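Could you join me in thinking about how sequence relates to backbone shape in a protein? Would you write everything just below, so we can both look at the same thing?
***
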Amino acid sequence: MAAAESALARELEQLGGWTTVYTDLSVDTGDPSRTEALRRRAVVDGVRQAGAPEADVAAVEALLAEPTHLPSPTTLFALVREGQVVVRQVVEEAAVRPDVHTYGPVPDLVPLLAHLAHAATYVLVEAERGTASVTLRRLGDAAPEQSETIEGRQEDLTKVRAGGWSEIDYQHRTEEIWKQNETEVASFVDRLVLDRRPDLVIVSGDVRARELLVDALSKESRALLTQIDENAGAPGASQQTLAAGVARAVAALAESRRASALERLRQFDGEADGRAAVGLGATVSALQQAQVETLLVDSRVLEGRTVLALGEAPWVATASDALSEGVEPVTVGAAQALLRAALMTDAEVVFADVPVTSDEVLEIGTNPETDPAADPLPAHADGVAAVLRWSSEPTHP
């Protein structure tokens, strides 16, 4: 589980009194001030009508008044409890779900986890022949976690071929300098991969510099490698073009993970080894035993269904008569309770339903009408299923 999810799980043990806000903060309109004022009023009215106490309402209003200093599109997710902001997550992405303004015993984690499912920590290398920019960043975060510019040797890279050098000598010396520069960059990237464990290594820039860099990367770094053709240093290029290429690479990774989880579920579903739980009852039972490795949810199908949320392990149930004496359950939305239980038991969360607003995802071929990998969960799953850490079936000698 990523650090963000682990920190959130610690906050979610308590039931009751959670205000959830999820809203688009983009102001790319002709009248940004009016747009912000109207949005602030709509969100504040929404949480108040949902029953949030005035302390939470005031905290939400203060949150909305804080400048993000980020370009559009920008989206805010926040959790507030007893007037205190517990989670504030601002991402440089368009909203992938409708606005949420709720108050209840558990927060609505669907929009936040939908964003996290399509985010990734990546190392971006912008390689040129004499220098390279290396950035460690999580997609959507306002600032990079680390950013370095590596200056290599520059002599002879642009030297006019003159004097006593032959053409072959000049090309050989230039190639050796390029190799040394890219080997230095590769060593830096390899250390980042070992120390920070990113999800992707994305290489862009000059074509020859990329080739030399990739050749010098370690096996561990190459296993995470994606190359993109966008070169922000080329004439007429822009950082926006590069950012779009990065977004497509991260979206491709997210879709690959989603398709892999669905394929594993299809592989285990119906097999005798019991490595899959399909349907609400079976999935809740597996979550109660911390048996779920990957929770697969179609939040559209689960809309309107409820289960019981608990303030202690096993965190979720379908019937109160099976609970220990003294445990006080509350009835909440099934998706909200299942996602909370998944975080509490360190399970991966995968959304089987594709965010319809994600142009990057749809662009790489995840239209359910044309791509088999984008099919939703099996019909008998009824909106939820899980791949399990161990078999639920007894073994026989």
